[in-house]
Design goal:
heterotrimer; A alpha+beta; B alpha/beta; C mainly alpha; A: alpha+beta; Rossmann fold; OB fold (Dihydrolipoamide Acetyltransferase, E2P); 2 domains; 6-stranded mixed β-sheet; 9 helices; elongated; C: mainly alpha; MetI-like fold; two-stranded parallel sheet; globular
Chain lengths: ~350, ~350, ~550
């Protein structure tokens, strides 16, 4: 079922939770929706589900205008962030609920429940109450309930948010598997970059109720269309570089005592200044000036994070964060906090705006 | 309990609903079952003070008319209070007959329009001068005398003089020893007010009552409560019936019988009575020889029929030498006096 | 849904009050306002209300502080004992006072024995003092719960900050704690003032010649045949009651309910240690003990005097069931036995509870899911019966349903209905708070699963608030068993519930059997309240009382 959404607007008081949202979700595919809290992701899901009525705009399921339809009549499976499992019902009753609510026969309900239990690997847990289950198991029950009544659309609101990190990967895989087997069009909402990038065929990034990116995850990641999307996707370092020379196939600029050369293709507009965005792991930290392209600064802090080190260098444009991939150099570098440091930018990984 | 867990939700819900309906139905049925007990019962209202008399009358009456179930109801109230209860139930009468209605409270009851005139066939057998209600709605039932009584043992024990007249009661040595029933609720009490107002003038009467207040221990709700206090020795001097001096539970009670007040009570049919025919029979019975002959032995009051002679202890009781009778013109003041008494004497 | 609730309210509550106002007359009003006696009664009513409120709130304040600040063993027991009078019906409080402070009561007997006196020294009963003291006894638990919630909403951080800035304890009390506590003080004060103003059983039983507006109105109706005067008096009072309704509504909505539902930090708590504590702590503990004794002893002595013959100060020595034997062999007028009376009380209470919870379910649902003005209005309407003269309601119910076409006077149906009117606010409040606490996501989940609103209500919300419904039923049952005003007003013929039986026993000076019967009533009420509490705890947080 193809989901199409046009010009959705939803105001809460003075703020706009959705400000003209338009997109299409392909039938049978997962569309990941990424954004910070308060960006309107949950509101979007609620409007699509029919739990909230939009102030403007329309929602179409396969060209059927469902905007005025109450949630009961839309065939939507919704997994809430809080899971919203009925605490007074056993697992099998939770799963059976959508079927019973829609008036299916006892036999049909039982058969479907069994099928869904198998699909979500909940065998043996049917008679338990939600409070007796682990976080991951509860998550699967919520999923099972959402798909039980053969909905056309599956909506997932931050499904992994309440789980411990080790569990997340396996559950994410489960979700993908279930989606594949059922073939339901899916909207997957999250604020976690990693999840959003890996879960779906398409990625949508939303800020303040507006879509700022929509496309293939890899593309969006590598070439974020706006600076906000870029920052969100990890391009947290931002510098201004003074343009020195503009050549036919490259542009030379200077920032923080470093001379940088960018291929002409990566630079979109040329003016007197370039805005450069780069990721902490898109640069290297050294203690000696080795090339003229390095930025100069003072090593302010060094944090050990297990697999890597996070270094903060104070330049004349503010702090810049650099990841050091060799954690074993920690003791050595620690002693050099406060001393001069140099940052070598990997120009090909940087974004020029 | 294990089985309960195995029931489906729908079944559990059904069971619960059934239980609730059963509780509701059972309660309603029980209450409805209680009602008919009184539905086919002749209800006679009267003061608690005449319980012995009334209950015996009801018993004998029920024997005589086996198809009628009769019961006497007093709610623990005095004669004025039960009359008021009758008045407050005007729009939806519960009682069929009221008895023990004092002469000096007749007017408010008549004016409230809660009684219906009925002249039983045997009314002619009652001496005409005994019929005190001009409209002949309230028929005479019995009579007595209110006098000053005292507990002989207590007074002689304290070396105090015996009171004879109203003014004697003002003696400061009697402080905390005097009781008289509350005129707001009790006929005995209201009759005392009438006595005082009839003997003195109204204003002098109120002044008297205010001065008497100094000596009063308490104002019991009715004759029964007052008698209780005498029996327990809590009260030494009071205003009670002359026949109380021969009332066996109170052996030390005596009276000089110098002056007294005639207390006449009546019986009447309630307007809108649920069981009118049976009520009429009861009234007729109370005026008959059978009914009247119960007055003396059970009620410690004098019958109104000439052909019934009081027997038993009553015959021994002396009557007051000087009897003050009720001044009809004062009849309308009953409510006014009661209110004023509550405010000035009780409240003060 | 709203329409249904409103019509229930209208029929049972507004219509009777309107009929009373119609029965009033202007001449009567003129007479009234120039009658010094009645004006004094009105003044007295205000006076005793004020005199009841201030001590009750002030007395409860240190106690609430004590419980909020210190942890100690048996604190739950202490709290349960403290709250007992709260659940006892008003007439039981009056009776308890008779037993404690009467001429032959506990205090006098004790003092006479200890000091060898001939006359009882304490003559407290049948006066303004008696009424006020009984009220204080009765309302300290209410003030306590409200103030406890108030303390729970105080932010300990603020106090710590003030302390670290060098503020003295006294200053902290004045400038930090008191402002945070002020709303709870005001709210509980408002409730107690209104309830004291409307008091009936207490002045009737132990006020003596000190009467209040409610009692005087009752007298005019029942003793002096002054129906017009009674209705005029009532209409006057209803004018005041309107203000009361507003006041109580604000007190509950703005102050008490939010505080009870909030899970704020509250004061930091220490273990109570009497050995190491300062003099102030020791004094406070002593005060708490005395106040708890003041609250608990009268109730204890009702049971003691019920279960012993003669002198009950030395209870449990001298225990006997003689009073019960006398009680059960007692027959009232109209051949009503004690068992009849008990049966009637239980049956009417069961019906009133069923009706009340059903009606409340409808109303609570409307309130929980409506918004804005409609919601406030409905909420206020359900509070109203608590703040209105019951005698006025009784007279009105009698006028419309008791007399006239229906002639329901003397019927259990009318009594049960009248109970419904005053119990319904309680159960609505309880059910409403339970409904609010249901996770809205659950309802959304049910909607998206295809369930209609009704289906969701039946299969999701109802089961989840089940324990609260049970608790509300028990509270409704307990309230009906102890209800006195309507029971007295409508008691006639064979209709006589247990509280009226107690009153009649007291009138007949059958004090022992009266205590026995009240002990039974209290036992039923306390067990119900305890069960209700346990149930409500299971269902997401406790009960919110009075508030």
């Amino acid at each position: 079922m193809e989901l199409r959404v046009e010009g959705l607007v939803k105001r809460y008081g003075a703020t706009k939770a959705l400000d003209g949202v338009t997109f299409t979700a392909e039938s049978g595919r997962i569309l990941a929706i990424l954004g910070p809290s308060g960006s309107g992701k949950t509101t979007l899901l609620k409007v699509v589900a029919g739990l909230v009525a939009p102030d403007a705009g329309r929602v179409y399921f396969d060209d059927r205008d469902v905007t005025g339809l109450p949630p009961q009549k839309r065939k939507v499976g919704y997994v809430f962030q809080s899971l919203a499992l009925f605490p007074h019902m056993r697992v099998k009753d939770n799963i059976a609920f959508p079927l019973e609510a829609r008036g299916r026969s006892h036999g049909e309900t039982e058969a479907t429940v069994r099928k869904v239990v198998d699909l979500t690997s909940l065998q043996g847990l049917e008679d338990r109450y939600p409070r007796e289950l682990s976080g991951g198991q509860q998550q699967r029950v919520a999923l099972a309930r959402a798909i039980a009544a053969e909905a056309e659309l599956l909506l997932l609101d931050e499904p992994l948010a309440s789980l411990d990190t080790p569990l997340r990967a396996s559950l994410l895989a489960e979700i993908k598997r279930v989606q594949e087997e059922t073939g339901m069009t899916t909207l997957y909402v999250t604020h976690d970059q990693g999840e959003a990038l890996s879960v779906g065929r398409r990625l949508m990034v939303i800020f303040d109720g507006k879509i700022e990116a929509l496309g293939e995850p890899f593309q969006v990641y590598v070439q974020p269309p706006t600076s906000r999307v870029a920052s969100f996707l990890g391009f947290t370092n931002r510098l201004k570089a003074r343009v020195l020379k503009e050549g036919p196939d490259h542009v030379e600029a200077e920032a923080c005592q470093g001379f940088l050369t960018f291929p002409r293709g990566t630079v979109r507009t040329v003016g007197k200044e370039l805005q450069i965005l780069f990721r902490p792991d898109g640069a290297e930290l050294t203690l000696k000036r080795e090339t003229p392209g390095q930025l100069e600064g003072v090593l302010r802090s060094l944090v050990f994070e297990g697999r890597r080190l996070r270094a903060r260098v104070m330049t004349d444009q503010g702090e810049v964060e650099v990841t050091v991939a060799r954690p074993e150099s920690y003791p050595e570098l620690l002693g050099l906090v406060g001393k001069k440091a140099y940052v070598l930018l990997r120009v090909e990984e940087a974004l020029v705006v | 309990m294990m089985a309960v867990g195995l029931l489906t939700f729908r079944q559990k819900a059904l069971v619960l609903v059934l239980v609730l309906i059963t509780i509701g139905a059972a309660s309603s049925l029980y209450l409805a079952w209680l009602q008919p007990r009184l539905e086919n019962t002749l209800i006679v209202y009267g003061p608690q003070g005449i319980s012995s008399f009334a209950e015996e009358a009801v018993r004998v009456f029920s024997q005589k008319y086996p198809d009628v179930n009769a019961t006497f109801v007093n709610y623990g109230l005095g004669s004025v209070a039960i009359a008021n209860k009758l008045i407050s139930e005007k729009d939806s009468p519960i009682a069929d007959v009221i008895m023990g209605l004092p002469e000096f409270y007749a007017r408010p009851v008549l004016e409230a329009g809660v009684l219906e005139k009925y002249e039983p066939p045997n009314l002619g057998e009652i001496p005409q001068e005994k019929i005190w209600d001009q409209s002949r709605t309230i028929l005479p039932m019995d009579e007595g005398y209110i006098v000053i009584v005292y507990n002989e043992t207590i007074l002689t024990g304290k070396g105090l003089p015996i009171p004879s007249t109203l003014d004697d009661l003002l003696d400061p040595r009697y402080k905390g020893l005097v009781v008289y029933p509350n005129p707001v609720t009790s006929g005995t009490g209201l009759s005392f007010l009438n006595w005082v107002m009839s003997a003195k003038t109204e204003e002098a009467g109120w002044q008297y009552l205010m001065r008497l207040k100094e000596n009063v221990l308490a104002y019991p709700r009715g004759w029964t409560a007052a008698m209780d206090m005498f029996i327990r020795g809590e009260a030494a001097i009071g205003i009670m019936f002359n026949t109380d001096t021969v009332y066996s539970p109170a052996p030390n009670l005596n009276s000089t019988m110098v002056e007294g007040f005639a207390y006449q009570e009546g019986i009447a049919l309630v307007k809108g009575a649920p069981h009118k025919e049976a009520a009429k029979k009861f009234i007729e019975f109370m005026l008959s020889e059978d009914g009247q002959s119960l007055a003396a032995p059970y009620g410690y009051v004098y019958p109104v029929r000439g052909d019934v002679t009081p027997t038993g202890d009553l015959a021994r009781a002396r009557k007051p030498s000087h009897v003050i009778t009720f001044d009809l013109s004062l009849g309308g003041k009953a409510d006014e006096w009661r209110q004023r008494w509550q405010r000035e004497i009780l409240g003060g | 849904m709203e329409a249904l609730s409103v019509s229930v309210l209208g029929l049972l509550f507004l219509a009777p009050l309107v009929s009373i106002a119609q029965g009033a007359s202007l001449e009567s009003l003129a007479e009234l306002l120039t009658d010094p006696y009645l004006l004094r009664v009105i003044a007295n009513t205000f006076l005793q209300a004020v005199l009841s409120t201030v001590p009750a709130v002030l007395a409860a304040l240190p106690l609430a502080y004590f419980f909020a600040r210190y942890e100690f063993r048996l604190s739950s027991l202490a709290r349960a004992v403290l709250l007992a009078p709260f659940f006892a019906p008003a007439f039981a409080a009056a009776q308890a006072f008779l037993i404690m402070y009467g001429k032959t009561g506990v205090i006098n007997t004790l003092l006479m024995q200890v000091f060898g006196l001939a006359e009882p020294p304490v003559s407290l009963l049948y006066s303004l003092q008696a009424v006020v003291l009984a009220h204080v006894f009765y309302y300290v638990p209410l003030a306590f719960t409200a103030l406890e919630a108030g303390f729970a909403s105080i932010d300990q951080d603020l106090i710590d900050a003030a302390r670290s800035l060098g503020a003295s304890e006294w200053r902290i009390l004045r400038k930090v704690m008191f402002p945070q506590l002020a709303p709870s003080l005001a709210a509980s004060g408002t409730l107690i003032f209104v309830f004291s103003f409307l008091t009936f059983a207490t002045p009737l039983l132990i006020g003596g010649s000190f009467t209040t507006l409610e009692v005087e109105t009752y007298f005019y109706w029942s003793r002096f045949g002054g129906w017009t005067t009674a209705k005029t008096l009532s209409t006057l009072q209803l004018g005041l009651n309107l203000i009361f309704v507003l006041a109580i509504f604000l007190a509950r909505e703005r102050v008490l309910q939010p505080r009870m539902l909030a899970k704020a930090g509250g004061l930091a708590r220490n273990r109570l240690s009497l050995l190491c504590g300062s003099l102030a702590v020791k004094a406070l503990t002593l005060y708490a003990l005395l106040l708890i004794a003041f609250e608990a002893l009268p109730i204890y002595f009702i049971f003691a005097s019920g279960f012993s013959q003669g002198f009950y100060l030395i209870f449990p020595l001298g225990a006997s069931i003689e009073n019960f034997q006398r009680l059960f062999s007692f027959t009232f007028g109209a051949r009503v036995t004690v068992l009849d009376s008990m049966g009637q009380s239980i049956a009417i209470a069961a019906l009133a509870a069923l009706l009340s919870v059903s009606a409340s379910l409808l109303t609570a649902y409307s309130i929980a899911y409506s918004k804005g003005r409609a919601r406030s209005l409905l909420s206020a309407a359900t509070v109203a019966p608590l703040a209105v003269s019951r005698i006025a309601l009784a007279m009105g119910l009698y006028t419309i349903y008791g007399a006239g076409v229906l002639r329901l006077y003397g019927s259990w149906e009318l009594l049960a209905l009248s109970h419904l009117v005053v119990i319904y606010p309680l159960t609505t409040r309880l059910i409403e708070s339970a409904l609010i606490r249901v996770d809205p996501d659950l309802i959304d989940a049910a909607s998206t699963a295809g369930a209609s609103r009704l289906y969701t209500f039946l299969r999701v919300e109802l089961p989840l608030i089940g324990p609260s419904l049970a608790a509300a039923s028990l509270i409704a049952f307990a309230s009906s068993i102890g209800e006195f005003t309507f029971a007295l007003f409508f008691a006639t013929g064979g209709l006589q519930t247990m509280p009226v039986s107690v009153e009649r026993l007291l009138d007949s000076r059958q004090l022992g059997p009266a205590s026995a019967m009240t002990s039974l009533i209290l036992a039923v009420i306390f067990v119900s309240a305890l069960a209700a509490n346990l149930l409500a705890k299971r269902s997401l947080g406790g009960l919110t009382y009075g508030a």
